[in-house]
Design goal:
Elements: H1 4-7, E1 52-55, E2 77-78, E3 86-106, E4 108-116, E5 123-124, E6 132-133, E7 138-158, E8 169-176, H2 179-191, E9 212-219, E10 238-248, E11 255-257, E12 261-265, E13 287-296, E14 302-305, H3 310-328, E15 333-336, E16 344-348, E17 360-364, E18 368-372, H4 375-391, E19 396-404, E20 410-416, H5 424-436, E21 441-445, E22 447-449, E23 460-462, H6 481-494, E24 497-504, H7 509-514, H8 534-548, E25 559-563, H9 571-587, E26 591-595, E27 612-615, H10 623-629, E28 632-635, H11 638-641, E29 642-643, H12 654-660, E30 678-685, H13 697-716, H14 725-735, E31 780-784, E32 789-793
Parallel strand pairs: 14-15, 14-16, 16-18, 20-21, 20-30, 21-24, 24-25, 25-26, 26-27, 27-28, 28-30, 29-30
Antiparallel strand pairs: 1-3, 2-8, 3-7, 3-8, 4-5, 4-6, 4-7, 9-10, 10-11, 10-12, 13-19, 17-18, 17-19, 22-23, 31-32
Helix pairs in contact: 3-4, 5-6
Length: 799
């Protein structure tokens, strides 16, 4: 995730494991909802489990073919180092089958799935006899229902791993029959539609048999169709992507999730060409019904707060006043009571809980009304108004009505401050920027190691003051505990959750440098803590205690990232450490996040799933595996969402992201829209070489701003068929930096020559450009120059 050599590898060894074998299709997924430690529970629906197997051979005696049908996630079959190797399972009798699942360790480049009644004459399950191109991980092959006794993996070509050709290897080879469940999914899909005025989903026309149950599992537009199946009529027609689950009541372990079922929900109104078109903001609005004419902000306009909401909305009102002054130059008053023409009105409406914590109603008529069930929802509504006003020099907003709410719950940015230090002022400006684009999560990566030493000779950094371990904080830049707490408090005001990250047991040179006994010198790797030592684990716990405990804790937000990635050490000990830290953070009343790596760190030691997993590199930790185990996941895919300036990915590919990406999409896996375990995405800036290559904070901002803009759009609104990337590019140039946080250092000029400052020295140090940057001279005199007036510099202190 964070090491240069790992970032550069795109064909790493794919280690696919699942502690609980569950039937998983590529487009139809099974549900796992347990939040307890995962145990090995063989499912009766895997027809290959513990059956007789035969193979062309095996790499060594310890990797025999029967290990691929034992239901365990840490044993496997591995073939000899040759192409065309094969493996088949004898089901014992002819059975109905329609799916094969392969849990890869070393995937093939290509292979076939064959079936037979006598293990002599084989038939391809694909009607065209096609060869399957492997994607690795947990791979599912679905095919029309057929009867067979023998099911065969036939390798065609091996795939190189870092340039070396090994054999084919998989942990499990599974065979399923899901025809009955599929048929019900198909029937419900065909029956599902929504009519005007309908208030509840209805699939009774599918005639679901009594022995089966159908439930709604996911919706990507909860304010329109919630998980109870209740329908709320949108302003205009709205598409909603649903996921249903079918359960076999006689054997409840047999469940199947549908792929997305798209329904069109008729709206209250029809948007016509004579009505105001949707205003351009980032992220774009979820629902809009245009009115006619415009609202105008004037010098007599006020920010009016509903009197009963004085206390809860005072902060939103004041920040909006400051931002409005920065954008327009107008110093608008804040008052409490009822709105009048020209006002901006904000209020809490408890009945709007169906819009979610961040959703709001945005109504524009003679005054602009922004209401929500929460202060954060109201505040995000003010961002909409300010963005529109910023784009209109006449300070107008088109009349109309919007319901605005996010598609994904967590929408984040991560900055690596460990390998490049950013001032607290810069981070504060980024809180404003993220809020400006309705982003709500800001992860701060506080410790890491570098290749080329810093200027002071150190090779690692920890960027937070510590009194428990004096001297641990880096002398070349760190934050006091109060500074970091104040940053989080500011985040609360702006609706941005600051997530601190302390990454162990890898990326830990700063800790082993502080206390070498925390590592294992015999390994020759000072970047790893030795978590087999109780005293090392206690060191990490004590560091966390310092920031979490007491009457005045440093970490005040609900979340903490514990890292736990890229570790070289005993896998089972590492898994135990992950479990320990997850439970320890939960015991403090906080929610842990960690970097996904359970595919790579395959093993049997249980790990609590009461955590959110940032899925960044699929061969290390696959998204399908994580959600199957019961983790909530964040998409931090290194291919799409990483930049490592001067190493690779100087900028995000904004056009690709705008046109093709949403948080459900990883490089080789796409989960269904509305999957309840996919919580959102996170754009990551890694500074592996930024410091040594001289990148400034301004350089970082130049790279991050366009990325923030596009991921904000795709995480709040998602993909829109009616908008283009070219139009989005024009929009983002106009909206730019957040008010009171001009990180791009752009200056608005009031002349045709684009002059910023012009001193003619005719009227002292008056700025003749019209921009009013008048100067003041100290120890300088205005005198006659060669042509006209000039300045004489008198030496010593002067300006």
């Amino acid at each position: 995730m964070k090491k240069i050599f790992l970032k550069a590898i795109s064909t790493m060894l794919v280690l696919a494991m699942m502690l609980t074998p569950v039937a998983q299709p590529a487009a139809v997924h099974a549900q796992t909802t347990s939040k307890q430690a995962v145990k090995e529970v063989p499912l009766q629906t895997n027809l290959a489990l513990h059956k007789k197997v035969v193979a062309s051979g095996n790499e060594v005696d310890a990797l025999k073919p029967e290990l691929a049908v034992d239901g365990k996630g840490n044993t496997r079959w591995s073939s000899p180092y040759k192409d065309d190797q094969w493996f088949y399972v004898d089901l014992g009798a002819k059975m109905d089958i329609d799916r094969v699942v392969i849990r890869w360790q070393t995937p093939a480049e290509s292979y076939k799935i064959l079936v037979s009644d006598d293990a002599k004459r084989w038939k391809n399950v694909k009607a065209d006899g096609g060869v399957i191109k492997s994607k690795g991980g947990v791979e599912t092959v679905d095919f029309p229902l057929l009867k067979a006794r023998y099911v065969k993996f036939q390798g065609v070509k091996r795939a190189p791993v870092e340039g070396t050709l090994y054999g084919y290897s998989f942990y499990e080879f599974e065979v399923y029959q899901l025809h009955d469940l599929r048929t019900i999914v198909d029937n419900v899909t065909a029956a599902l539609k929504v009519n005007a005025g309908q208030t509840k989903l209805d699939w009774s026309a599918a005639h679901v048999p009594e022995d089966y149950e159908v439930t709604l599992y996911g919706s990507d537009r909860l304010p329109v169709i919630d998980l109870e199946g209740d329908i709320r009529e949108p302003l205009v027609d709205a598409k909603v992507n649903l996921i249903i689950q079918v359960t076999d009541k006689k054997n409840p372990i047999r469940k199947l999730l549908s792929d997305n079922i798209t329904v069109l929900v008729p709206g209250q109104h029809k948007q016509t060409s004579d009505r105001n078109s949707e205003p351009d903001v980032i992220p774009s609005l979820r629902e809009w019904y245009g009115g006619k004419g415009n609202y105008s902000l004037t010098e007599s306009s006020r920010i009016v707060v509903n009197a009963k909401d004085h206390e809860i909305l005072q902060n939103a009102a004041e920040l909006t006043r400051q931002d409005l002054q920065d954008i327009t130059g107008l110093d608008i008053k804040i008052e409490y009571g009822e709105p009048k023409k020209g006002d901006l009105f904000i209020a809490i409406d408890p009945s709007l809980t169906w819009l979610g914590d961040e959703g709001n109603l945005f109504k524009v008529d003679e005054y602009v009304s922004m209401t929500s069930s929460t202060a954060q929802g109201v505040f995000f509504g003010t961002r909409t108004a300010l963005q529109i006003i910023k784009q209109h020099p006449d300070r107008t907003i088109p009349r109309g009505e919007s319901r605005d709410y996010p598609k994904y719950e967590q929408r984040g940015l991560m900055i690596d401050v460990a390998r490049k230090f950013y001032t607290i002022d810069f981070l504060q400006s980024y809180v404003k920027l993220l809020s400006w684009y309705k982003m709500n999560t800001f992860q701060i990566h506080l410790n890491d190691s570098v290749g080329t030493p810093f200027k002071d000779g150190t090779r690692a950094a920890f960027r937070l003051e510590s009194s428990t371990y004096p001297g641990l904080a880096s002398p070349n830049g760190h934050y006091t505990k109060q500074e970091f707490k104040d940053l989080q408090l500011m985040g609360k005001e702006y609706g941005v959750n600051i997530i601190p990250e302390i990454d162990t047991p890898g990326h830990s040179r700063v800790f082993t440098s502080y206390n070498p006994s925390l590592g294992n010198p015999s390994t020759g790797d000072d970047n790893m803590l030795d978590v087999s030592k109780p005293e090392t684990v206690q060191f990490v716990k004590s560091l966390l205690d310092e920031y979490l405990d007491g009457n005045d804790p440093t970490f005040i937000g609900p979340d903490i990232n514990i890292g736990t990635d890229e570790y070289n050490g005993d896998t089972e000990v590492f898994r135990g450490y992950m479990d320990t830290l997850i439970k320890y953070i939960n015991s403090k009343g906080k929610h842990p996040h960690l970097w996904g790596g359970l595919t790579h760190y395959n093993g049997v030691t249980p790990i609590s799933t009461d955590a959110t997993m940032d899925i960044w590199h699929e061969p290390y930790g696959a998204p399908q595996q994580a959600v199957d185990l019961g983790y909530d996941v964040i998409n931090a895919q290194n291919t799409y969402m990483y930049i490592v300036p001067t190493v690779y990915g100087n900028y995000l590919n904004t056009q690709l992201l705008y046109n093709e990406w949403e948080p459900v999409k990883w490089e080789t896996t796409t989960l269904p829209l509305g999957h309840p375990h996919v919580k959102g995405g996170m754009f990551c800036l890694w500074n592996d070489a930024s410091e040594v290559n001289g990148l400034s904070m301004d350089d970082s901002h130049d790279r991050m701003l366009p990325g923030v803009q596009v991921v904000a759009e795709k995480m709040w609104t998602g993909t829109r068929e009616d908008r283009s990337f070219e139009r989005f590019e024009q929009r983002k140039k106009k909206i730019g930096d957040a008010p009171t946080a001009n990180l791009s250092h752009k200056v608005a000029v009031n002349n045709e020559d684009n002059s910023v400052i012009q001193y003619l020295f005719e009227k002292e140090f008056e700025d003749a450009s019209g921009n009013h940057y008048d100067g003041k001279g100290v120890n300088v005199d205005i005198t006659q120059g060669k042509y006209e007036n000039g300045v004489r510099l008198n030496g010593e202190e002067l300006y």
